[in-house]
Amino acid sequence: MLKNQGQLETPAGNERKGKKCDGNVDSCGPGYHTPLDAMKAPREQIVYLPCIYRNTGIDRPDYVANVDVDPKSLTYSKVIHRLEVPNMKDELHHTGWNACSSCFGDPSKRRNRLICPGLVSSRIYVIDTGTNPRAPSIHKTVEPTEVYWKTGLANPHTTHCLGSGEIMISTIGDPSGNAKGGFILLDGETFEVKGNWESPGDETEFGYDFWYQPRHNVMISTEWGHPKLWAYGFDPQHYADGKYGQSLHVWDWTTHRRIQDIDLGPEGAIPLEIRFLHSPDEPQGYVGCALSSNVFRFYKTPRGDWATEKVIDVPSKKVEGWALPEMPGLITDILISMDDRFLYFSNWLHGDVRQYDITDRRNPKMVGQLFLGGSICKGGPVQLFLGGSICKGGPVEVTHDVELDQQPAPMVLNGQVKCSAPQMLQLSLDGKRLYVTTSLFSAWDKQFYPDMIK
């Protein structure tokens, strides 16, 4: 999954701790002093991309690919290095840095390690990108037993660095495959598991993503579902049975206590990726809800608690030739430009990436849309494995669509129709280039886009 790759890590709070900068930028820590400073950074030259073999039928370990994205390079748009991990079926997923703009004020910190958790194995790889950025190596492996025994958590997902220099990783389950939301703390120097970030007894039923804003003493986390269910594909009945989440959780950043739960209801089914606005003074942001295909704005109220409102609704499309009579967009990733002007998100089933102007925070306006495959394109082959049965293969016919007059054309690359769809997004710091990848999770890829697995 394309996430926080290369030098594209963005500020997460921008709180300075430790040694102070003396005004000389070269003596400061990693990242950027402000989000607007980040937009003036040099153009990215390489990106790091986890690549997955699990559920492909090929028994090889996952690997991290280096992709050259420098248009002046002779190897532009080529994979220039592959770092294969030593274990099988880890399901590398989201990645994050050991140090980012939260450590900007500490010149002793360097952004030289990429943290790559295995979503299924619960193994965590620490990759050395500092010694040779174009050919990284494995610096350390944190084994699942250390995660299990020290935290009681499993299935690590989102990685953020902290201003303290520590590394924090959200989790989705326990060692038995049941849902459990908590947070692993890694030592920023040794990368040993220090324990849990959350206070005892404050773990959540479900877990997934998180984002924090220290100036407002807050962190907010989201929910997916039970690993032992989603690990084998998606069944809508499991959501109806309460096996997937629909809530946000508000945390006191200082005490690590969970202070508020916000039930979004069915319109907020499966809230995945969450983003605060980049300005550290802003007490608001957005969360994309996958199954309901809505975007909610969350914000701090005058009372000091937190509230939400739905601001974007992606209508489901009535279809034939699919598993269900209606197909949701399935919002799987969202991001915000560094200047807090634009919101982007991907509809993994419909196949489009959307750009919204969010200068009016409560009334986003769509200003861009691009189809990159998906399940509703003309003549696009679709098979859906659901509840042990295979629905009829072949093209999906859209019978009613309140947004489009006709089904979009399929994505063709090098003369071939690509049966996949946009999923993870990463915007360049200057906001001029959007990087997009296709894999959601290997079991779901196999279920919804079997040709992509090939």
Describe the protein in words.
With 454 residues, this protein is mainly beta. It has 6 helices and 32 strands. The strands form 10 sheets. A 4-stranded antiparallel β-sheet has the order 4-5-6-7. Strands 8-9-10-11 form a 4-stranded antiparallel β-sheet, covered by helices on one side. A 4-stranded antiparallel β-sheet has the order 12-13-14-15, with no helix packed on it. A hairpin with a 5-residue loop joins strand 18 (294-300) and strand 19 (306-313).
Q: Spans with pLDDT under 50 lasting ≥5 residues?
A: 1-19, 385-393
Please state the average pLDDT score: 91
Structural class determined from secondary elements: mainly beta
Beginning-to-end CA distance, first to last residue: 17 Å
Determine the strand fraction and express it as a percent band: 25-35%
Oligomeric grouping of the chains: single chain
Task: Sum up the overall morphology in one term.
Answer: globular
Strands ordered across the widest β-sheet = 4-5-6-7
Strand count: 32
* Number of helical segments with 4 or more residues: 6
The biggest sheet, with number of strands, parallel, antiparallel or mixed sense and barrel status, is: 4 strands, antiparallel
The helix content is under 10%
Radius of gyration: 21 Å
